[in-house]
Specification:
Structural class: alpha/beta
Radius of gyration: 29 Å
Strand order of the largest sheet: 7-6-5-8-9-11-10-12
CATH superfamily of the largest domain: Vaccinia Virus protein VP39
CATH architecture of the largest domain: 3-Layer(aba) Sandwich
Distance between the termini: 65 Å
Helix content: 55-70%
Number of strands: 12
Largest sheet: 8 strands, mixed
Shape: elongated
Strand content: 5-15%
Length: 841
Amino acid sequence: MNGTNRLRAIALYLFSFASGAAALAYQVVWGKQLALSFGGTTLAVSAVVAGFLGGMGLGAALVPIGIRRIRSTLAAYAGLEAGIALSAFLLTSVLWRLPSFVASLALDGAPLTVARFALAFALLTIPAVLMGATFPVLADALIRSRDELGRHLGWLYGLNTLGAAAGTLLTGFVLIERLGLDATVHAANAANLAVALGAAALAGLGGGRESAPRSADVFDPPRVPGGLIAAVLTLSGFATLAYEILWFRSLTYLFGNSTYAFTTMLFVFLTGLALGPLVYRRLAGRSPERTLAFTQLGIGLFALLAIAAVATVVANAELSTRLSVFSPEVFDRPWRTRVARHLGFASAVMLPGTFLMGLAFPLAAALRVADPRRVGARLGSSVLLANVGSIFGSVIAATWLLPHLGTVGGTRLVAALNVGLGFALLFALRERGRTLATAAALAIAGGIVVAVTPGHIRFASAAAGVPGATAVFEEEGDLATVQVWQDPVRPDRLGMAIDGSIIGATRTWPSIVWTKQVLIAHVAMLWRDAETALTIGLGSASTVEALTTWPDLRTIDVVEINEPVVHGARFFPESAALDDPRVSLRVDDAIQFLAGTDRRWDRIVSDGKQAMSFSGTSKFLSHEFYSFARERLTDRGLFVQWVPVAVGSFEFRVIVRTFLDVFPETEVFLEPPNHLVFVGAKNSFDDLAVRTALPPGALENLRTANIRSIHALGARWVASGSGLRSLIPDGPRHDWNHPVLEFAAYRLTPAEWRASAGEVLAMLVRASEAPSLTGYILAPTGENVADVARLVRVSCAFAAVGQPERAREFASQALLIDPGDPAAIAWAERLERPLPSTMRE
């Protein structure tokens, strides 16, 4: 290769890298946007994957055929990149308007599923087709002989995928948080336009298609049937996407489900896929067919080793303590240290297998290139085959493998597919002797790995507070792993966990999650004239049960996105409330449900989790979600949301600003040490009458949360919206374009959580000095519940900032006023034992 051709090749390599980075930025952003319209269900996500990969496959297969007639392939490539920039810019704007359009369709069930797939294909077709065409068109511009096929194919494909890995890292760690979704797309637009200008300039300098190779320079036909190679491409694509879903789920047992965790896993996965093609020429050897066969066998073996490594670490308490984000040793570390540990483990687990997966594509694709004049078209059809397999792999892994076989069983089945492909290739080659013996040895090694690997991975962190707890229910669904844990000594102690974090419990479980489940229901009913209610999220059904204690409610609707939660809830006695004729349960994405219905409710109750374990739920703290909820309230309606105190002072300010933007009329209640309840009125609280008594069932239910009267419930008031607004300066809001809360929770250490909790509590104590709701929920003469509640709040604030003696002092004052106050007694007892590291229970 002379100097000019070498520089030309380097330029095209750089184009491929930059184009891959931009493509992943688009995919991440559009995935987030489409989830707002299609929801977070499996079929919704599958529709997005199918639309993106299907469009890319069609572009790869069809566009190069038409470009063959164009004089300068590089000029055509420049047009493709410019077209990607323009279509991506326009599509991003359209996707922001899509939620309202999807809601206006008023579809449900199968028609909605069909509409989602049709819309995904229709919207993503143009940019995806153009993106899919870039790789084969670049290959057509650069490869004109058998030697150049071996020299450039792996590098073009590998660098494109490596660019995608870099795009993932940059988008997930920097661009979205600092710039927002729109600006991230604009940055990717700029990258595409820069590549387009570079390619156009290179074409103008005579860097377009050169003369066709000599007719004698023909490629040797493959030694295996073409149909088998096509099958290997398709089924390898199937396996790759299936592994991605299965492995990512298994690693959440150690990494959690934060945005940083997902970005780290995707970066490692794509990096492995990129490294394999970069060494394609060296590893192809004299028999690429045999190399492809052993690549498939190696993928199967390394897949089994990968899932075995994860299962072993999760099951081993010492190893899990060093790697699991749920362990104090890891959680105490700075967030970058956590990411580095997870990056190292993810690399050790996934890189060997993904390296071979990446190598398999150029090996198989090159075998299908028989005519050097049709390099682009043949490579494009290979991309189409692989993408079709990937679409089926993502759908089947999410809808069948995970729910029925789990991460371990699913990986074993897909690994068997790879091993089968390897032996099919060897038999087609009629290999004998040492080759088959080596293959058999690899298969036997895989069998040994299966034999010594646990057949199931289990989140044990959720039961850490209950020695000997057993999982009486576990379902590894497509969205999350749901467990119900039971104390064998006290069978009435039950806790429900999603991906290792407790989200529901009975009153006797050693977590105060029960209190907030009850509190949000009864605070919502403090005001009269409520006949209809909607609760978002089922959990252990405690909130639903609390709502059923109010006879005024004629209808109680529940929407829960995760069907295994519904199955697990039946283990809790509170689930008997689901049989109340007033209760109606729907399994659906809450945002899609709110956007797609024209019903109105007097009360909407939401659990707004914001912590490291729940960063994926930040959309329920967004301006758009609050706006959807407000539109679905009646004129006398109230929106009620739980928010933890230990949310981070910056994050708390963001939440308050966002909430007050949509609900200027707001009242805030506090149940120490960590439960905040925001109540937003659609209109004005002045138009609503406050209750003066509780119905017997509600009073009995509240007493389980140490609240013994309606006056004690009212005394939990801590601030009005105007009081908070006066203490919080203007600053960022959380919305779908700028999802600042999606990244914030993971970065805090326990010490920072405690400091932030202290700041938040101090702010609330200052805000409580403003005119308050308790001004018209007056306690009877002689009952000092408001004074007791205030002293407990102050005590809690001192505890949060590490001043236990001052905390005990104020707790004692509260007990002097009312020695029988159950909340004051419970808090005083709590001060005598160590507080949780983050006060987030």
